[in-house]
Design goal:
two-stranded antiparallel ribbon, single chain, alpha/beta, disordered C terminus, Rossmann fold, GTP_cyclohydro_II
């Protein structure tokens, strides 16, 4: 008896993919239509009074669980282009639910333009170099101004740029000891006040690029994000056509001392500190680690370089036992990984700033060094924290990192291989 032909699996998968794309387009069309109908309905009807929207005390339990649907057009629009979330999404939801914030509030961006011009640079258009932020995020309200007005869309920036003064108690001592010299431009006075350009960045992930950066396929990344956020973002699985994701995580901050334009000047010297935020040390002054001493040292060195060129201090995040040999083993026993401060996405901000090379990197971290160099940005010198600035109680941390080879002492460098 003749054998039946086998099913062509590739053809089946192709048909399924076509169906998925049709469903995606249909879903987008339905969202758009629903948005326009809701908007027209709101224009024809007066908003119900607060008294009418209140649930009476005698209402049955089933009625008390029925919340009115949001009249915001934001969700319908964003669901067609981005997987929503973001670090402030929960606070936004609470503000709307408690009626402290109108769901249809539109920010007034008058006089909110970036304090300084940064870019654009060729790196902004390279999906291999910037995958975890929107390079045009600081200009979004002005780029899409006409669209926001004609379509009543809520488009907000993901990057803010401002100018400020920085004041830290250690900096006054730095001036008194002569490590910093006031110049009225960068170091403003005898108390060590510093002029700084601050950039705050919210994460915007391009999922294919993020997956490639970590050496995994996009489907694996989407599945893991979906499963380990309690299924909060089902579109990660159902909407493969949507490539952008606002992760519910904190962003990063850049502090630039000196002329920001010199960061992208390949001729100007640049000192850089990639600093993982540590509340215990940075804020409360704990001496169990070297985070704040290294931060202050990094700021001092950045200011000195700025007085001769340009510099950056970049602030990110931290995770934090008493023998050096046990330090990372105990961390891994608890967290399951020695260090979850993955640095693979960190160089994106350097590309955004237009940085082409780093003359002095104020860090001995191999993870940070490797992440930056792998993205094509050479580092000419690595500068360690001076011995006299290391608190006694933090020796465990330093010795542990040396033991685990996550940092390298300057005496261990072979010259040509690292400098």
């Amino acid at each position: 008896m003749a054998q039946e032909p086998l099913v062509d699996l590739s053809a089946v998968l192709e048909v399924l993919d076509d169906i998925r794309q049709v469903q995606s387009r249909l879903s987008s069309s339905v969202d758009l239509l629903e948005d326009r109908l809701n908007r027209a309905d709101r224009e024809d009807k007066q908003q119900e009074s607060d008294d009418e929207s209140q649930v009476s005390p005698e209402a049955p339990a089933s009625q008390s669980l029925q919340a009115p649907s949001s009249s915001s057009s934001r969700t319908a629009f964003t669901s067609r282009i981005i997987l929503t979330g973001g670090s402030y999404s929960i606070y936004h939801a609470l503000a709307v639910a408690s009626k402290e914030l109108d769901a249809n509030h539109r920010p007034d961006f008058t006089n909110a333009e970036p304090a300084v011009n940064i870019g654009p640079f060729p790196q902004w258009n390279d999906v291999k170099k910037i995958v975890s932020m929107d390079p045009w995020g600081h200009m979004a309200p002005w780029i899409f101004k006409d669209l926001m007005e004609t379509e009543n869309l809520d488009i907000r920036p993901t990057i803010a740029i401002t100018k400020a003064h920085m004041k830290l108690p250690e900096l006054e001592e730095s001036v008194k000891s002569g490590r910093l010299v006031p110049d009225g431009s960068v170091c403003l006075n005898s108390t060590g006040d510093l002029a700084v350009t601050k950039v705050a960045v919210e994460p915007v992930w391009y999922l294919p690029g993020v997956a490639e950066r970590f050496g995994i396929d996009e489907a694996t990344l989407r599945r893991s994000l979906f499963e380990h956020t309690g299924g909060s973002y089902p579109e990660l699985i159902t909407r493969g056509d949507i490539k952008l994701f606002l992760p519910p995580i904190g962003g990063l901050t850049v502090y630039c001392f000196g002329d920001p334009q010199k960061m992208s000047d390949g001729q100007a010297r640049l000192s850089l500190r990639i600093h993982d935020e540590c509340n215990g040390s940075d804020v409360f002054g704990s001496d169990i680690c070297t985070c704040r001493p290294y931060l202050i040292f990094g700021i001092e060195e950045a200011v000195k370089e700025a007085q001769n060129g340009g510099s950056v201090v970049y602030n990110a995040r931290k995770r934090g036992e008493d023998r050096a040999s046990d330090y990372f083993r105990r961390t891994e026993n608890i967290a399951g990984v020695k260090d979850m401060r993955f640095q693979a996405l960190m160089p994106d901000i350097l590309h955004w700033l237009g940085i082409k090379k780093i003359d002095r990197m104020l860090s001995m971290s191999n993870m940070k060094y490797d992440a930056i160099v792998s993205q094509g940005i050479p580092i000419h010198e690595r500068v360690e924290l001076p011995e006299e600035r290391i608190p006694e109680d933090s020796r465990v941390e330093i010795d542990a990192k040396i033991t685990a080879a996550s940092i390298i002492k300057s005496g261990d460098l072979d010259g040509e291989g690292y400098w």
